[in-house]
Amino acid sequence: MPHRYSLSWLLAALLPLAATPVLGDDYTQARQHLLSEIERDAQDTSLYLDREALDPRVMAVIGRVPRHEFVPANQRSNAYRNRPLPIGHGQTISQPYIVALMTDLIEPQPDHRVLEIGTGSGYQAAVLAELTGQVYSIEIIEELGEQASKRLARLGYDNVSVRLGDGYYGWEEHAPFDTIVVTAAASHVPPPLVAQLKPGGRMVIPVGSRFLTQQLVLIEKQQDGQLITRQLLPVRFVPLTGGHD
Fold it and tell me: Which sequence positions are flagged as catalytic?
């Protein structure tokens, strides 16, 4: 059966941003347009995901989290475009569809303790915070981590803790985690993260190098510790950095 590719996610990092009118203070219309685009992307990638729509709870959160607060001032007019945007230090805020998809895949619950690797601007952490009990997020770039921590606190996300460090090694002090979301591409699945995932838990992580095809991978840890791994679809993420091999 032939695959159908969604140009919005596959080419998002390659296409230049088209001119977008300044949205002003009211982003309602832009948010609604974004949700429609995410719905179309979910349909276009349904052959990969065995589903044609994302969890309505996730979609509702994507529709209300103020993405314009998580991008640089010069990118605010593009905040609700369905594509990644630069946030400085060679990093990006992920495409909203990918944020929604990764959130959907971990099946978040109100009592979940979540580990996020790669805080970035804090946008993914904010989405997770709306759906789970506690989010622990690790950022290796000091300036981004400090900015994200202040931003999340200012916006009222008091169930997010941000730490500076190498996310490859996780956050053992608060393990085990019900779910783990990795927002940077690793060459392999980090063993410390597998060890810190609770039996019955889920991890979503992009695996691959900067220059080769990356695959979004879903890992489910069984009660006996065995792993079920599924490659879902090709993606493009900045690399997971740090001192690990």
Answer: 94
**d(C-alpha 174, C-alpha 114), whole Å:** 10
- For domain 7-235, give the CATH number: 3.40.50.150
Cα distances (Å, whole numbers) of residue 177 to 108, 122, 138, 194, 200:
12, 19, 14, 10, 10
Residue spans of the domains in the chain: they are: 7-235
Residues 6+ apart with CB under 8 A from 81: 17, 20, 34
pTM of the model: 0.88
- How high is the mean pLDDT in each 10-residue block of the chain (245 residues)? 36 36 66 97 93 95 97 96 95 96 98 98 98 98 98 98 97 98 95 98 93 91 96 92 70
Helix or strand (DSSP H, E) at 150: helix 142-154
The closest of 31, 75, 67 to 151, measured between CA atoms, is 67
